[in-house]
Design brief:
The protein is α+β, with helices and mostly antiparallel strands. Helices cover 48% and strands 10% of the residues.
Length: 209
């Protein structure tokens, strides 16, 4: 008599498929640490901004990442406040040019499609009321080294050329500040910040080629 095979739970199959598709590098598991809604939003936004820069690179195609929020089985009323907070964040980041799209991946996770890096500075043009760019860090471009300033200037000139600006010298300094503010917001505090900023500028330049 043939021995019956032990069935594999559907949840185990889904987890295996997710691990094969996304891997650890493109998965944020908020469920494991049981954060508050505010902590989950802060972690998710920082992670998504970094993923947008480091995962996209010069790739013009779409890139998907996975955020696991949990179903909220332990939450009051069985409603996941973390899931709802992250869902609100995804809508906000879509308007800011970080997220291109998102979809529910089961009741406790989201698949998020990241927008290209250049969407960070294209996003204000799509809104009726443009939000001011984040303040530059450091507050003056003079604090950047010569190599970083040169790369940032090239990026600003490329952006102005794409917009059809003829007298770009009159706008290049302001465009450098705007580009710098958008890219600096994607970098977490830590050592070698200048090197990581240069890498982000180079990745943004590649997307114009």
């Amino acid at each position: 008599m043939a021995r019956s095979r032990r069935s594999i739970p559907l949840s185990g199959l889904r987890r295996a498929f997710d691990e094969a598709r996304f891997g650890a590098a493109r998965t944020l598991n908020l469920r494991e640490s049981l954060p508050t809604a505010a902590e989950a939003v802060a972690r998710a936004e920082s992670w998504l901004r970094q993923q947008q820069v480091h995962q996209h690179g010069g790739n013009g195609g779409s890139i998907d990442v996975l955020i696991i929020t949990g179903r909220g089985n332990r939450s009051e009323g069985g409603v996941s406040v973390v899931r709802d907070a992250v869902l609100g964040l995804l809508h906000r980041l879509k308007r800011k040019g970080v997220v291109a799209a998102h979809e529910e991946h089961g009741p406790g996770s989201f698949i998020v499609t990241l927008a290209p890096v250049r969407s960070l500075w294209d996003a204000p043009k799509r809104r009726r009321v443009a939000e001011p760019p984040p303040p530059p860090e450091p507050p003056s471009l003079d604090a950047l080294d010569a190599r970083t300033r040169a790369l940032l200037r090239s990026l600003a000139e490329r952006s102005l050329d794409m917009l059809g600006v003829r007298d770009r010298e009159a706008f290049v300094e302001g465009e450098m500040l705007r580009q710098f503010g958008a890219l600096a917001a994607t970098l977490a505090p830590g050592p070698q910040r200048d090197e990581r900023l240069r890498a982000a500028i180079l990745l943004a330049l590649e997307q114009y080629d």
